[in-house]
Design a protein that fits this description.
One of its GO terms (molecular function) is RNA polymerase II complex binding. By secondary structure, this protein is mainly α. 63% of the residues lie in helices and 3% in strands. The protein has 50 helices and nine strands. The strands form four sheets. The protein has a three-stranded antiparallel beta sheet with strand order 7-6-9, with no helix packed on it. α41 runs antiparallel to α42. It starts with 38 loop residues before the first strand and ends in a 39-residue tail after the last strand.
Length: 1292
């Protein structure tokens, strides 16, 4: 598609400056009514003429009609005055005059035909200006609508057709009439299609316009315009565009109607909006008062403004240009133009000037003949009623707007969306969802997807705060899918969709519980959108760093957004970043309080301040947290959460006096606050952790939680989890010797699980309750697998070291020691747990079990290392010292049980030292006042180590030393052999690598050589091609230019048989040669001037003469065995140099009838070749002899064939007339050159053919060539072709 449609005629036939003396040519003007004179003289009966001023006509044409009737004025006067009225836009008067004139001219059908046709056109004009629907308050039967005038036009057209159906103006009028009727047809209900009835009407209109074009022989440009309009309505925009261009090229001064308007509309529909703009601008250059060009350009800039951000200066510039420069001008030119009215109504709707919206929208609906504009009018009215709150009228108008564009499966998406919005306002969410889902199915409407996703999200949010929770996972999935689809569409630049912060905020809320990382990303994207909205004037001028600038302008963002981002950072453990955002949120609140004093931000300040204090606590900045809480309490002294945190901090700082007093005071002042009760319950648990009574009913913490559940809130989740933990600890300490004890213990675990299960029913995401159930499963049921699954899920929620410790316990019980070690080490990596003695002990025990299972000394060493590290952390803990001694004893036992080849004396010595340390530690632990295990057991272990293991290690050490001394040489040899093997393997690996490198280098060099050879071959072939082309060129004798050599024309050639007959007549003795007719003479063709300059003619003696001169190059023609060589297409012609062959032959002739002589000559040639050092293989000689023998056999077969002289002569090669003339004077063998059969040494003897003289003359083939393989003169056509290479130039 061309970038512009305006041809050279658009600026006049010679361009824009085709005026006189280079001045600009005047713009073309409209020619409508240009032939109406200013005055007209009406002849009267008394030869008197009355002048009528057509510019000042009476308001009532009755008097003029009476005059014309009395004077029997001809048609021209009736029509001239009527058109003068029409020129003044008094269409009704013009129609009245034409109707009366038609009545007067009843007797003259020819003149009446023109008047009726003109009346039809005026009715069509009235139809364009009439309202589409009856005005409000008027009767439909009395309203003069478009349909009314179209009926009158149809009647007039039918009257004219009855007079003369072939009248040329009727074709154009019929096409326009059908076109206007089609515009009133309702749109198609099927998506993307034209209504079948309307399409049929448009095709009929198209036929009428084509008939008008035909009868005018293509000169009726208005008919071509009508055809283009019909094609446009059918959606055939390229064809319509071509028709409009055709009008413009043939009639560039046509401005009313202007084809440039149609060109621009076609461009717009085809997607070339800039080209459409150029066409409309050119229209304005020619006619600045074109209302259509103005409004269309206004729509262009209005559309352009929709593709830029609304807060950008470019948007303001484009929108202002669209409305004030173009739309307003179009409205001033014609206040009833439907498109202008609809556009201005949209502008007033955005300004909330609903009175103007109502008036302009009704105008657009009444006067348009385009369904889309009527739909826009109804939609604007619906939006107005929507704003006013009249939902019923708004719904009706939305329905009409939808129906005007097809409704149902097609329709107008904004109108459908408006109906869905009304359903939401009516709280009919089910209806709204159905409509929105149907819209999304029809077309991927992103506004509908946003609204539907928001409705599903609101259902999820409402369920979160409901007392009775329902499963809304399906709704959440739908909401996320819809909103994420919209989010993905933002990234497509072709869709040009602006990101919506509301979508991201809803997604963040949906992701909050399941995927907090995704929720945080959504909030960060909202933050970026808000930063992009900040004007450059608000940016700090003295900050150059981008990060610092971002921090500085963060206070300009909404504090709610900053607070939410800070909360997500806090949950993720990034407390420093969380503190920054909370502080920025407080700065934003301070800014808002200064600029927008009417807003109440106290709630925001309170919440953000508390969050900031908690973030300070996480960072370990206790002083900052205390200061923040105290500042918060100075504004709200009754803020219990802040007081609770202060009491907790005080308890951690002063656990003996001030802390407990602060907690007790807080509890006394707020006994009903659940948060305070939770803190007090935790405090009671800490105080009584070391002195818990055997009976759980007497535990203060248990009584406190029970009191909370009974008297304050039976669904308090903290109290439920606390009760479960207490029962769990109680069950863990119960005895388990008898079955009754085990049953009692199992019942306690079941009671704990009941509390945890109740908490999970109230809060399915309560990880602490799930963890309690998992512990109960492990300790009571030994159900490690199910417990493992629970702990894995808990690990995803709680970032607590104890979760990993519990996971380590389960993996250890499942004997998955590697995973257990990983879990314990992860717990140690958590903040504050790097030197936790309990975790270190668990890690040491796991390594010990791993060493036992695998008999791995390294694992034992790791167990001893972690046990010693735990002891170093808490040296006063006797059980940790026992752990070290126990590992040392186990290590000694393991080494004693190992074979001599598996241990060393050094390891045994270390184990002996560790055993002595263990014995001493056990004695000290047993002597302590409160040993962790029974004293008797400790002493027994120490005695066994002292009396038994010590002696075992001594004997093992002596045996190990004897083994090592005995096998020292073997060990050294084995070590040396191993080292030699390693060296050998290393050397072998090095050699293989070196060989591989050499192989790769060789391959690389070969590839380079092949590439170089290929380049040389390419260059050589190119050089040969240039030489061949140069050889085909010659110098033109007239111009001196180099031209391609032309072959000699065969027009003057005579038949071969005639030439041979004349040749024989010129030869003495009946044309026989001196050899008795046995030798074949060769006739040379006359060489061309371009090839034989300086070349002498060969001698005419029988010896061939001229043996010292070079003969011309020969061509070798090869033919397949089974193909006759008489066809040129069956032969391959290759060049062959005969210079060396001529030297070998020495000018000797060959007598075909004397084989012995021929063989002697062949032997002489072979001898000469061998003496001169020419390589000639014996195989080649044998092949040559075989070739001679076969040649003699062919001649023997040819002699008795009885061929006549004429037949032999017919087998001769053609010769030119000129050469025959030159040689005609000779006698005997002097006239013909006898040729010897020479054989060129060939590498491949399978090639066969004949040798031809190289000449530029055109060669003629004769079917009777005797030497041609497969064509023996004896008539034996079935004989196989000769495989030898023989001369084919011998004449019999």
């Amino acid at each position: 598609m061309a970038s512009t449609l305006l041809s050279s005629h658009a600026n006049g036939p010679d361009g824009p400056t085709n005026g006189t003396n280079g001045l600009a040519a005047p713009a073309p003007k409209g020619k409508r009514f240009s032939d109406i004179p200013s005055t007209i003289d009406i002849p009267m009966q008394d030869d008197v003429e009355v002048e009528i001023d057509l510019q000042v006509l009476p308001d009532d044409p009755t008097e003029l009609c009476a005059v014309f009737e009395n004077e029997h004025s001809p048609r021209i006067y009736w029509m001239t005055v009527a058109l003068a009225y029409a020129k003044q836009n008094k269409i009704d008067f013009a129609i009245e005059m034409l109707v009366r004139g038609a009545n007067v001219l009843q007797g003259n059908q020819r003149e009446k035909l023109s008047i009726i046709t003109c009346t039809c056109w005026l009715y069509l004009w009235k139809s364009r200006e009439a309202p589409r629907v009856a005005p409000e308050g008027s009767l439909v039967s009395e309203a003069k609508t478009k349909e009314y005038y179209l009926q009158l036009a149809t009647q007039s057209l039918n009257d004219a057709s009855r007079i003369n159906p072939a009248f040329p103006p009727l074709f154009l009028a019929r096409g326009v009439l059908i076109l206007l009727k089609a515009s009133l047809q309702p749109p198609s209900k099927a998506p993307g299609a034209v209504d079948s009835h309307k399409a049929e009407q448009l095709r009929n209109a198209l036929k009428s316009f084509e008939e008008a074009i035909r009868v005018s022989q293509g000169r009726n440009m208005l008919a071509v315009m009508g055809k283009a309009r019909a094609l446009f309505s059918l959606g055939r925009y390229p064809e319509s565009l071509a028709a409009y261009q055709d009008v413009l090229s043939k009639m560039p001064d046509l401005v009313d109607p202007d084809p440039r308007i149609g060109i621009g509309c076609c461009f717009w529909q085809l997607g070339f909006k800039d080209d459409a703009k150029m066409a409309w601008e050119r229209c304005l250059e020619i006619n600045p008062d074109s209302k259509y060009a103005n409004i269309l350009l206004g729509l262009y800039y209005l559309d352009a403004s929709g593709h830029v951000p609304t807060n950008s200066p470019e948007f303001i510039q484009l929108y202002k240009k669209a409305m004030t420069e173009y739309t307003q001008k179009s409205f001033k030119l014609d206040k009833n133009l439907p498109l202008t009215c609809a556009t201005f109504a949209g502008y007033f709707l955005s300004r909330k000037q609903f009175g103007n919206v109502d008036a302009l929208a009704h105008k657009a609906i009444q006067h348009t003949d385009v369904n889309a504009i009527a739909s826009d009018g109804w939609y604007l009215l619906a939006r107005k009623e929507h704003y006013d709150g009249d939902l019923e009228r708004a719904s009706d108008y939305y329905r009409r707007a939808d129906d005007a564009r097809g409704g149902a499966e097609r329709g107008y998406m904004p109108a459908k969306f408006g109906v869905a919005q009304l359903s939401v306002l009516k709280n009919d969410l089910g209806e709204a969802k159905l409509r929105l889902e149907k819209m999304i199915q029809q077309s991927k409407n992103y506004e509908a997807m946003i609204l539907l996703g928001t409705l599903y999200a609101e259902e999820v949010f409402a369920n979160q705060s409901a007392a009775v929770k329902e499963d809304k996972s399906a709704e959440a999935k739908k909401a996320i899918g819809l909103l994420e689809s919209v989010r993905v569409a933002w990234k497509d630049p072709k869709k040009n969709l602006a990101p919506d912060a509301a979508v991201l905020l809803n997604l963040a809320r949906l992701y909050e519980n399941e995927s907090p990382d995704k929720a945080q990303l959504c909030l960060q994207q909202v933050e970026q959108l808000e930063i992009d909205q900040v004007p450059q004037s608000e940016y700090p001028a003295d900050v150059a760093d981008e990060a610092a600038t971002r921090v500085a302008i963060r206070k300009l963002l909404p504090p709610q957004l900053l607070n939410n981002i800070g909360c997500f950072y806090s949950q993720d453990g990034k407390h420093k970043l969380a503190t920054e955002f909370f502080q920025a949120a407080l700065d934003s609140c301070a800014r808002i309080s200064q600029t927008e004093s009417e807003l109440d931000i106290d709630t925001l300040l309170t919440t953000i301040s508390f969050n900031l204090g908690r973030s300070y606590e996480y960072e370990g900045e206790v002083d900052g947290a205390v200061e923040t809480y105290e500042r918060l309490l100075s504004r709200h002294s009754d803020y219990t959460d802040a007081r609770t945190r202060l009491a907790y901090i005080n308890l951690r700082k002063n656990p003996n006096k001030e802390g407990p007093d602060a907690v007790a005071k807080l509890y006394q002042e707020n006994p009903s606050d659940l948060e305070v009760r939770a803190l007090y319950g935790w405090f009671l648990g800490k105080v009584n952790s070391k002195k818990r009574p055997a009976n759980i009913a007497e535990d203060p913490e248990q009584r406190h939680h029970k009191h909370t559940l009974q008297n304050y809130d039976k669904h308090d989740r903290y109290a439920l989890v606390g009760m479960g933990n207490l029962h769990l600890m109680s069950a863990r300490e119960m005895r388990r010797e008898t079955d009754q004890d085990k049953q009692k213990r199992s019942a306690a675990y079941s009671r704990a699980v009941e509390f945890f299960d109740k908490a999970l029913q109230l809060d399915p995401k309560n990880a602490y309750a799930a963890q309690g159930i998992a512990i109960a499963l492990v300790e009571d049921k030994k159900d490690y697998k199910n417990a493992l699954q629970l702990f894995i899920k808990v690990r995803e929620t709680i970032q607590d070291p104890h979760v990993y410790v519990n996971l380590g316990h389960i993996y250890a019980e499942l004997r998955q020691f590697t995973k257990a070690v990983e879990s314990y080490e992860t717990a140690l990596s958590k903040e504050g747990k790097a030197n936790d003695a309990g975790i270190l002990s668990c890690l040491g025990r796991t390594w010990l079990n791993k060493g036992r299972a695998e008999r791995n000394l390294d694992a034992y060493k790791m167990a001893l290392e972690h046990a010693q590290k735990a002891l170093s952390v808490a040296p006063d803990q006797l059980h940790l010292r026992f752990n070290v001694a126990f590992v040392q004893i186990q290590l000694a036992l393991t080494l004693h049980s190992m074979r001599d080849s598996e241990r060393t004396s050094f390891q045994l010595e270390e184990a002996a030292e560790g055993l002595e340390s263990a014995i001493k530690a056990l004695d000290d632990i047993a002597a302590s006042p409160s040993p962790p295990y029974p004293k008797h057991d400790m002493e027994q272990r120490a005695n066994m180590a002292r009396n038994t293991q010590r002696k075992q290690l001594e004997r093992a050490l002596a045996s190990q030393r004897e083994y090592e001394a005995r096998n020292k040489e073997k060990l050294a040899a084995a070590l040396e052999q191993r080292q030699a093997e390693l060296r050998r393997r290393e050397e072998l690996r090095r050699r293989e690598e070196e060989a591989e490198r050499e192989r790769q280098d060789k391959i690389r060099r070969e590839r380079e050589a092949i590439a170089a050879r290929d380049r040389q071959l390419v260059e050589l072939r190119a050089e040969e091609e240039r030489a061949r082309i140069e050889a085909e060129m010659t110098t033109d004798s007239e111009t001196g230019d180099r031209v391609k050599r032309k072959k000699k024309s065969a027009a003057g050639a005579v038949s071969r048989r005639d030439r041979d007959s004349r040749e024989r007549e010129r030869e003495p003795g009946g044309g026989r040669s001196a050899g008795g007719g046995k030798g074949r003479s060769r006739k040379k063709k006359a060489p061309s001037a371009g090839e034989t300059d300086g070349e002498e003619e060969e001698g005419a003696d029988g010896g061939g003469g001229g043996g010292g001169k070079k003969r011309p190059r020969k061509r070798q023609r090869l033919a397949s065995k089974k193909e006759s060589a008489k066809f040129k297409s069956a032969e391959i012609v290759v060049d062959s140099d005969d210079d060396e062959e001529e030297e070998e032959r020495g000018g000797e002739g060959r007598d075909d009838d004397d084989p012995l002589e021929w063989a002697e000559r062949a032997l002489e040639r072979s001898a000469r070749r061998s003496r001169s050092g020419t390589p000639a293989a014996s195989a080649s000689d044998e092949e040559e002899e075989e070739g001679g023998r076969k040649q003699r056999q062919r001649r023997q077969r040819r002699r008795p064939s009885g061929g006549s002289d004429g037949e032999e002569e017919a087998d001769r090669m053609d010769v030119d007339e000129d050469e025959r003339g030159e040689r005609g004077g000779g006698t005997g063998g002097g006239d013909d050159e006898e040729e010897t059969v020479t054989r060129r040494p060939q590498a491949k003897r399978s090639r066969r053919g004949r040798i031809l003289d190289e000449s530029d003359d055109e060669e003629e083939e004769v079917a009777g060539d005797a030497p041609t393989p497969g064509a023996a003169s004896g008539g034996e056509g079935g004989e196989k072709a000769d495989t030898s290479m023989v001369d084919a130039e011998d004449d019999d």
